[in-house]
Amino acid sequence: MARFEIHVTYKKGIFDPPGATAERALVNLGYEEVASVKIGKYIQLEVADGTSETRVREMCDKLLANPVIEDYRIERVGEA
Amino acid sequence: MRFGVVIFPGSNCEQDAVHAIRHLGMQADYVWHGDTDLAGYDALVLPGGFSYGDYIRCGAVARFSPVMAEVVRFAERGGPVVGICNGFQILAEAHLLPGALLRNRGLKFICTTVDLRAEESACQWLDRAPGTVLRVPINHNEGNYICDEQTLERLQGNGQIVLRYCEPDGSRAAGGSAPNGALDDIAGICNERGNVFGLMPHPERVVDPLSGGTDGQHFFTAIARRLAEVS
Prior knowledge:
The structure holds two protein chains of two kinds.
Chain A: E1 2-10, H1 17-28, E2 41-47, H2 53-64, E3 70-79
Antiparallel strand pairs in A: 1-2, 1-3
Chain B: E1 2-7, H1 14-23, E2 27-32, E3 43-46, H2 66-76, E4 81-84, H3 86-93, E5 100-102, E6 110-118, E7 133-140, E8 144-146, H4 149-157, E9 161-166, E10 186-190, E11 196-199, H5 217-230
Parallel strand pairs in B: 1-2, 1-3, 3-4, 4-11
Antiparallel strand pairs in B: 5-8, 6-7, 6-9, 9-10, 10-11
């Protein structure tokens, strides 16, 4: 099996309410150095050996991410 | 006049929609999401709920239900389709309507009744004069409408913004009147042709006066009148 890790985050300029809330909470807890928190999704994908990144990209565009509001980053992390 | 009300696994407003339509003297049937035959329906309703548990993103999985390919064909032929709440999210995920619906700005699930202003639009599902204020319930966690600037300009220019959240007198507050943070106070939009309509509020819940109002009637009667005119 091949393994991929996918990080999905909001596009720049899209307001991320959970991130903004975590940011405020951290500052309130005394972590005044916190300037920004963005919260996204982390997906672990196991696929048949030889699956191309193009194919994984297709899965992201179709289902795992919404290109209207989200960016994603794919990383091949080796064969499982 | 026969409406098809699609049930996805996790839909929960389909009975309200069917009741509303029948209350207005029209016919309504349930359509299972696995069905692919929409023959005989004059209009389709994608109801509210939590299709597929809202997993991945609201509407992201329902969009690939077998019935959806037929819904897209129906819409492309000019057939009237309305998506209410989760149904709106499904239409956006299916790219039948532009933009997306994000988590409410205040992070809270909002369940209340709002004032909506009918806008000058191409929407076939609304026949109220622009500026008319309607009171309709909302009930959602992801109703914060967003799209890019070019899309917003296009929506404004084409008369695709159908409903905006507003104050009781129809005005819009300086800081925005949308309780969920929606861009430009957008509560409902349609496609360019005006046959596909998506809105976060629930008109089906204010059709029968027993449920506290009748402002939701307009949407169903408008499309019925329109279909009667063209047939």
